[in-house]
Amino acid sequence: MLKYKEDLILFLIRTGALKFGDFTTKSGRQSPYFINAGSFRSGEHIETLGNFYADCIMNTENVKDDFDILFGPAYKGIPLCISTACALYRKYNLNKEYCFNRKEIKDHGEGGMFVGASISDGDKLVIIEDVMTAGTSIKENVPLIKQFADVIIKDEFILVDRMEIGYNGKTAPQEIKEEFDITVHAIVNVREIIDFMYNREINGKVLLGDEQKDKMERYLEIYCVK
């Protein structure tokens, strides 16, 4: 596993964003783990997240610097795309523009729906988000963006892929690929989390031992893509 993936998992544990136990998800499923992106709330957190996204982008073939603008869907995508743009410039000397949408069109001042880089026909956009459950944000924002310009959107980067299948038998990334031809890249997925955390001691404690791993494996067997 690449080091930045391992570092992300440890970061999720340290910030309390990743927990193991018994949780009820929004869909009503009983999950043995939970990821709460709301745990990120400091300058250190957002800068570190930007580094992870930048590392993932630069380690993804056919993306790297082959794009023009980072797009962050409001609201959670806004600080993430800005932090990623900063990290790409600081770590890789790659100076990319960023843009995000408003929830409502501004009717005064400069007006408009978007803040940041101007979007034009032919621009290549990369979308930055935290997590993906049903792909609702993409389904809302891609048609919105294309109302303003005929852009090219081929890739989206998210923090964690739970690899879960919806009630239609497909994962959200599969749906997004089929509907919009956008490939969703996760910095880390749940299988990688299990493999890395199993019997690993963190601050003198094993968070994912045999019993919890069995729960995780059963959950993946029932709800996740094989």
Q: What can you see in these coordinates?
A:
Helices cover 39% and strands 26% of the residues. The chain has 226 residues and is of the alpha/beta class. The chain has a single domain (3-223), classed as 3-Layer(aba) Sandwich (Rossmann fold). The chain has a six-stranded mixed β-sheet, with helices on both faces. A two-stranded antiparallel ribbon has the order 1-2. Strands 9-10 form a two-stranded antiparallel ribbon. Strand 4 and strand 5 (112-116) form a beta hairpin. Helix 1 (3-15) packs antiparallel against helix 2 (43-58) and helix 2 (43-58) crosses helix 3 (77-92).
Strand content range: 25-35%
* CATH structural fold name: Rossmann fold
The total tally of domains equals 1
Please tell me the CATH architecture by its name.
Answer: 3-Layer(aba) Sandwich
For the CA atoms, what is the radius of gyration?
18 Å
- Average pLDDT over all residues: 90
Number of strands: 10
List the helices and strands and how they pair.
Blueprint (H helix, E strand, L loop, with lengths): L2 H13 L2 E7 L5 E6 L7 H16 L10 E4 L4 H16 L4 E10 L5 E5 L7 E5 L7 H13 L3 E10 L10 H9 L2 E7 H8 L3 E2 L2 E2 L3 H14 L3
Parallel strand pairs: 3-4, 3-6, 6-7, 7-8
Antiparallel strand pairs: 1-2, 4-5, 9-10
Kindly list the characteristics that best describe this protein:
single chain; two-stranded antiparallel ribbon; 39% helix; alpha/beta
Briefly summarize what is shown.
The protein is an alpha/beta fold and 226 residues long. It contains 7 helices and 10 strands.
